[in-house]
Amino acid sequence: MTITWRRLAVADFPLLRGWLEQPHVRRWWNHETSPEAVERDFGPAARGEEPSEDFLVFLDEEPVGLVQRVSFADYPDYAEELRTLVEVPDGAVTVDYLVGDQARAGQGIGPRMIAAVVEATWTDHPGAPCVVVPVAAGNRASWRALEKAGLHRVGEGELTPDNPAEGRDHVVYRADRPRSSHS
């Protein structure tokens, strides 16, 4: 089974909206799900008006999830808050992700999505020294997916949560750019 992705398009918003309404996603993503809200939150990236890279991820040809990849340089306030817990080197990027259908969760798709996008980051963002990912400490499935994808825990502490109901405790994971075989 092959993981592929492409940029999220406006035509994908009904699918994304359905995923955001799933209880296993809603708890951690905490997005409004009206068509207007999905357009507001995802439209600028889908149209290339915002630097976030939002990818619709496929397992073979079936859409199974979303990965957002952003450079911390494009979101300096986010980077500053994270720097209270861990080093965030210049050029670092982060990812966020979801497996849309609850029936597909827990099948190893999340770690495969994460690993594939992190691996592509080294080519897509040649100046990126690492990928740094904060996760709500209570979201065990998410941080376990990061571990299975090869990221390592590098810190923990309080950050502004996506869902205020989940509290401020976070864990932070990191993957460093692999050393070239020529070094």
Automatic annotation (TrEMBL):
<dbReference type="InterPro" id="IPR000182">
    <property type="entry name" value="GNAT_dom"/>
</dbReference>
<feature type="domain" description="N-acetyltransferase">
    <location>
        <begin position="3"/>
        <end position="178"/>
    </location>
</feature>
<feature type="compositionally biased region" description="Basic and acidic residues">
    <location>
        <begin position="165"/>
        <end position="183"/>
    </location>
</feature>
<keyword id="KW-0046">Antibiotic resistance</keyword>
<dbReference type="Pfam" id="PF13523">
    <property type="entry name" value="Acetyltransf_8"/>
</dbReference>
<protein>
    <recommendedName>
        <fullName>N-acetyltransferase domain-containing protein</fullName>
    </recommendedName>
</protein>
<feature type="region of interest" description="Disordered">
    <location>
        <begin position="154"/>
        <end position="183"/>
    </location>
</feature>
<dbReference type="InterPro" id="IPR016181">
    <property type="entry name" value="Acyl_CoA_acyltransferase"/>
</dbReference>
